[in-house]
Structure formats: structure tokens, C-alpha cells
């Protein structure tokens, strides 16, 4: 059901030069970043800014495209009952380095507000497992994302 919703939202994508799988992966990644942000019950401005920065840097989109992606991701993430719809798209369309980079981005969002909550860590662990990211890469991504003391 959520995959059908993803596809419906994406069918209005105006840049036909971009392959549908790339658009699907972008939306899945954005939704996963939002899932981490919302997992602790708050979606603060620091986390929103971190997500925005990660999407901007990771996908080289215009501000309008970023806003559309963010809004679509927020919509599908609010309707999602689990992470599988997003992780299955990401697993299918991202290579291993991109999966590890996504996990690092998830950690960056979790650390953005200065507090790492157990709920955020649990979501990141689950996403990492569903993407088949090794425990070593999971830990390295966490260490790389930690703010310098």
C-alpha cells in the first residue's frame, strides 16, 4: 500500500530525464531521514536543517525540487506503518557505499539536536539491518557522525 502511494506521488515528477528508480531512492532516503527525526517524538529545527542539508548535498537538487522531495517524504513517512517500504526501495537502488552513507546521514540527523535518544538509535539499527549494512560499517558511520567534543 505504501509503495503504491510512493509511486503515485512520484508519477507527478516533472524531470523525465531522471530514472524512476533514482526518484524512488531519493524519496525512500528522505523518508528514512524523517523517520529518525520523528522517532523520539520531536521534529526540531536542527533535525530538519540536517535533513535538508543531507538531501541538498546528496542529490544536488534545486530548492524547489528539495522542497517537493521533503514534502512528499513527510507525507509518506506520516502514513507509513513500518520502515520496510522505504528500506526495500533503498536496498534495491543503492550500492553498498550509498547504503553506508545513508546510515551515516541517519546518525547525523539523530545527533543534530545534541541528544541521541534510544528511539533514534533503534530506528537506525533497524534500517541498517534491513539494508544489510555490516555491524562494522554501522559503528564506523556512527563514529563519523558524532559531533566533535
How would you briefly describe this protein structure?
The protein has 149 residues and is mainly alpha-helical. It has a single domain, classed as Orthogonal Bundle (TerB-like).
Give a written overview of the molecule.
The protein has helices at residues 2-10, 20-38, 45-59, 63-79, 84-93, 96-111, 118-130, 135-145. It is mostly helical and 149 residues long. The protein has one domain (2-6, 20-145): TerB-like. Mean pLDDT is 86; it is low at 9-18.
**CATH homologous superfamily descriptor:** TerB-like
Number of strands: 0
Number of domain units: 1
Tell me the name of the CATH class: Mainly Alpha
Structural class: mainly alpha
As residue ranges, the low-confidence spans are 9-18
Element order: H for helix, E for strand: HHHHHHHH
Instruction: Report, as a whole number of angstroms, the end-to-end distance.
Output: 44 Å
**CATH topology-level fold name:** TerB-like
Give the fraction of residues assigned to helices.
over 70%
Number of helices: 8
Morphology call: globular
Mean pLDDT: 86
Question: Rounded to an integer, what's the Rg over CA atoms?
Answer: 14 Å
Largest sheet: none
Q: Which architecture would the CATH scheme give at its second level?
A: Orthogonal Bundle
Secondary-structure map:
Layout: H1 2-10, H2 20-38, H3 45-59, H4 63-79, H5 84-93, H6 96-111, H7 118-130, H8 135-145
Helix pairs in contact: 2-3, 2-4, 2-5, 2-6, 2-7, 3-6, 6-7, 6-8
Main attributes of the structure:
149 residues; mainly alpha; TerB-like; 8 helices; 74% helix; 0% strand
